[in-house]
User: Which sequence fits this backbone?
């Protein structure tokens, strides 16, 4: 997605299980509905014992792993299907096998 | 391509080594597995002979061979403990192992690769092991990029350069490209400034201009999918091969190629998650056991993206072709890096 303020691409990060979008240009942060409440709730639990670690990541197929701000747009948590499957196929045979 | 004069001698060496291991060698035709400026590798039956890079000295190579011999569950052990000299090149002998199939992405052993690296990073490093050579190789790729870009710009009238700029020559030279599937055509040298700007944002240690901040952790130094084989072939356990860059250093460097592929959109989030999860499950020390791994991965992943982009441009220039779509995605990542300095991506979001 694009930043509503400066229109640079926004990248998705996972902070304690909450997906947030950060603008690669102005560094502004976008929160989806309910995410502010999730962060507030996490903050209030800060001094309590940590919850058990989440189950295997396969249990959450919709959650994209963290990526750097300079990374390619993966589609964040909006799914990631065919659009780069083609690039993966092209890159696998040569790029992933050489120094 | 001119035949490498080293090949016949190396092939004879591989055959002699193979025959010293068995009296019943099936003696099929010898196979050249690789023939690059930095390595020539020949297989004869179950034996592989490797001629190392011309600048590699016994002092560089022998402690690395010793390390492989001492960790046979992680690194393919050499057949002989010391290299021999052949026409001024150091040659080593190895058992043949079955490599990863480049035609079958779904069979790539991400978990095995991650687990081997985690165990390597926890293994005690032998004394006298030189530094891991990852940063030095990145710096070398940048030096070559500067040299070929300068040569291209100062000699615009060379026939090869002129030929490359004609509209008929470029697509014809790109055999991966079909008429229906044309990448955005980028003249290779126009991508050079993006790559150099990204390189300039990196800290000195990752550019081999200062010692690495870790001088005790054992690292492979050049992890990619061509560095794994099953031994004994064809279905033994996976092992790491190629100790030329092995040494002590920052272990995140070994995770940084898959990390860079993921960041550049070449590796799916699922495959990256499989790799990272397996690394953590095996107790790997390069990233924290949980939470965001990118503060540790960021600098090495940037360096390897820059290195890979630099080599892609150098190769495209040599082959007289445009950058392809995959290579362009590396240059695009370099562009984005220059606007996000490494320190901003450390710690938490601002």
Assistant:
């Amino acid at each position: 997605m694009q930043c509503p303020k400066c229109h640079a691409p926004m990248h998705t990060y996972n902070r304690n299980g909450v997906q947030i979008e950060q603008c690669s240009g102005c560094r502004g942060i976008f929160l989806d509905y309910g995410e502010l409440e999730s962060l507030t709730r996490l903050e209030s639990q800060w001094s309590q014992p940590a919850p058990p670690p989440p189950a295997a990541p396969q249990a959450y197929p919709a959650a994209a792993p963290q990526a750097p701000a300079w990374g390619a747009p993966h589609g964040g948590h909006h799914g990631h299907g065919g659009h780069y499957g083609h690039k993966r196929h092209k890159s696998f045979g040569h790029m992933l096998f050489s120094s | 391509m001119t035949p490498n004069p080293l090949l016949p001698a190396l092939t004879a060496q591989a055959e002699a080594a193979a025959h010293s291991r068995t009296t019943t060698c099936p003696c099929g035709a010898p196979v050249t597995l690789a023939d690059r400026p930095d390595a020539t590798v020949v297989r004869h039956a179950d034996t592989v002979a490797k001629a190392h890079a011309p600048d590699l000295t016994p002092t560089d190579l022998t402690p690395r061979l010793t390390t492989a011999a001492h960790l046979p569950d992680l690194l393919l052990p050499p057949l002989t403990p010391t290299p021999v000299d052949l026409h001024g090149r150091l040659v080593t002998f190895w058992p043949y192992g079955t490599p990863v199939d480049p035609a079958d992405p779904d069979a790539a052993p991400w978990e095995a690769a991650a687990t081997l690296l985690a165990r390597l990073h926890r293994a005690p490093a032998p004394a006298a092991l030189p530094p891991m050579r990852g940063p030095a190789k990145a710096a070398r790729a940048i030096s070559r990029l500067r040299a070929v870009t300068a040569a291209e710009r100062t000699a615009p009238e060379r026939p090869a350069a002129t030929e490359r700029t004609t509209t008929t020559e470029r697509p014809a030279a790109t055999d991966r490209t079909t008429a229906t599937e044309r990448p955005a055509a980028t003249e290779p040298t126009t991508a050079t400034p993006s790559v150099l700007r990204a390189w300039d944002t990196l800290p000195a240690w990752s550019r081999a201009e200062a010692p690495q901040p870790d001088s005790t952790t054992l690292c492979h130094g050049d992890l990619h999918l061509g560095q794994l084989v099953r031994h004994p072939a064809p279905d033994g356990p996976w092992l790491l091969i190629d100790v030329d860059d092995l040494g002590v250093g920052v272990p995140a460097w070994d995770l940084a190629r898959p990390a860079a592929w993921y960041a550049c959109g070449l590796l799916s989030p699922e495959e990256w998650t499989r790799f990272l999860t397996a690394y953590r499950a095996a107790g790997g020390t390069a990233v924290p056991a949980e939470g965001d791994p990118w503060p540790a991965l960021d600098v090495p992943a940037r360096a390897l993206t820059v290195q890979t982009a630099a080599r892609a441009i150098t190769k495209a220039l040599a082959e007289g072709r445009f950058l392809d779509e995959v290579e362009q995605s590396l240059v695009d990542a370099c562009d984005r890096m220059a606007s996000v300095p490494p320190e901003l991506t450390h710690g938490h979001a601002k």
